[in-house]
Amino acid sequence: MIPALVVIAVLVLVHLAAAVVATRVIAARIEEQNPPGGVFVPVTGGHLHLYDLAPAAPAGPAILLIHGATSNARDMVVALGEELARRHRVIAVDRPGHGWSSRPRGRADASPARQAALIAEALRRLGVGKVVVVGHSLAGAVAAAFALDHAEATAGLVLLAPVTHPWPGGVTWYYDIAARPVLGRLFVGTVMAPLGAWQLEASAKASFAPLAGPADYARRTAAGLVLRPAEFRWNAQDVADLLPFVRKQAARYGAIGAPTAILASDDDTVVSTAIHATAIARQIAGARLVLLQGMGHQIHYNAREAVLAEIERVAADATTAA
């Protein structure tokens, strides 16, 4: 008679094997449905994928759009890039390991400073001069790192519901698991994609609370790409390694000299406006703080016109300062 533990072990292995197959099928389907839409720019050790949009006669400095966690450049293109590209050259980049960008140094590329350096390298290869850097959520730390470490390439800075300072507590449990070396690989290689695909539309809708958000957001922004095992793991590393990074970076914000606007909503339950936006606004001389009401975390959609107006204001200030 076969021991019960052996039977259980076999059943577990069968289910894990099925989950691995399901994950690979889902990932392949997601990639087929969301092919690269931009250009690939070589950087040290790999490449960045980005969208380079411009009218026939661009005005003012180029606009660099950097997306937050659990998304890719399409999120910023749909929200802001297509409209901004009526007047400006717009560069919307997949951060390293996201969308179709590579992750040259693995977990080391979770550092916002390292991501800013790779983005700055890509801009140099494209021959882009100074840019107005726009970062949403987690990319607030990346945009701030860009302004600090690449001041010569920074014409202005716009932070949208940004993460900039240390916060109490940790991160969501599934990010913590996915970021771990061994358990993380097992987690993202088996259960994450099937569960994520099942909840994708609902999760996307919830991120716009208290407003509804675009009905076709997940499709238009290729949101499903984050469910691929490698990208989800890299995304988790970005989130897990963010707190120790901003602990060190937060003391440097007073060195930012570019025209700056910071926008956040009073009811943001994802990133605390008091801990982050209002704090960095006090540190940057001359920064304009715009406090919105009832717009939640996805302010680049929920308060699109206000965000576009501030980007244009900073671009105009940058042109005057130049």
UniProtKB/TrEMBL annotation:
Name the UniProt record assigns to this protein: Pimeloyl-ACP methyl ester carboxylesterase
SUPFAM superfamilies reported for this sequence: alpha/beta-Hydrolases (SSF53474)
Pfam families in the cross-refs: Abhydrolase_1 (PF00561)
Source organism (scientific name): Labrys wisconsinensis
Domain AB hydrolase-1 residue range list: 61-301
